[in-house]
Amino acid sequence: MGLTERIKRTSTTDWLLTWFTGVVAVFTAVLALTSIYQFFTIESQLEVMREDQRPWAKITVDVPPEVNRATQAEMTQQLAAIDNVTYPIKIVNVGKTPAIGIQVDIDIEIVPKNAGPSFNYPGTHETVITGVLFPNDPYSFPANLLNPDRSVAQLSSTQRDDLATGRSYIAVYGKATYADSSGAKHWTQFCWWTAYFRAGSSNASSCVAYNDIDRN
């Protein structure tokens, strides 16, 4: 075999090796990109599954619907009958797995009409603790307006008059903390308000905005 032919064969072999190496590199890159895509897709699906299967604590002030539709005369009559401000609270696990170690910090405030609630949990408030709440199980308890010494407060004549004339409104707010079966921490915070003077207006926007959940 002549020198020229050996050079041609060597060049052809080198070209084939280069081409094959390039194909392998491209194929490897495609596999790597596909694996990365599948990883993020699976991770996203798992996150959706976790959200779907986790517990969700829903907190409501459990008043009859007709209370919110009451006329001014009915509201005035209700206010006249109140000695201490107490509202029934209901927490329900609307998720698909148990909520564990539930703690609810809750407070009732009489708020000036142009202000928002303080959301001050280090201050005087009630704390309710329960163990496990299974899916769709409700847990109910009363929330009370408290004195600074944590005793149940009696509605004063000034407070009653402020509510009757629209100078103030009542806000009930709280935060529930709990865990799922894997130990991940979750929370729900809520705020509900009512005014006994129907003709007036109250700046309760911060109360409405306070309603929120964790994104874990």
Would you kindly provide a written description of the structure presented here, covering whatever features stand out?
With 216 residues, this protein is of the alpha+beta class. It folds into two domains: 1-53; 55-213, Immunoglobulin-like, CATH 2.60.40. The protein has helices at 3-53, 65-68, 72-80, 157-165, 205-210; strands at residues 57-61, 86-93, 99-112, 126-133, 138-144, 168-179, 185-194, 212-213. The strands form two sheets. It has a five-stranded antiparallel β-sheet with strand order 4-3-6-7-8. Strands 1-2-5 form a three-stranded antiparallel β-sheet, with no helix packed on it. The N and C termini lie far apart (73 Å). The model is unreliable at 44-48 (pLDDT under 50).
Entry keywords:
elongated; alpha+beta; 5-stranded antiparallel sheet; 216 residues; 2 domains; Immunoglobulin-like
